Amino acid sequence: MIHEQRTDLDGLSPAGLREEYDADLRAVIDDRGAEAQNASSPASQARLDVDAVAEELGVDREVVAALADGESPEISMADAAAIQALDDDAPDADTIVEMAWEHLLLGMSSAVLDVETLASEVDAELSAKEIQQKLERRASATLDEFVAIEHPIVDRQY
Question: Which pTM does this prediction carry?
Answer without folding.
Answer: 0.88
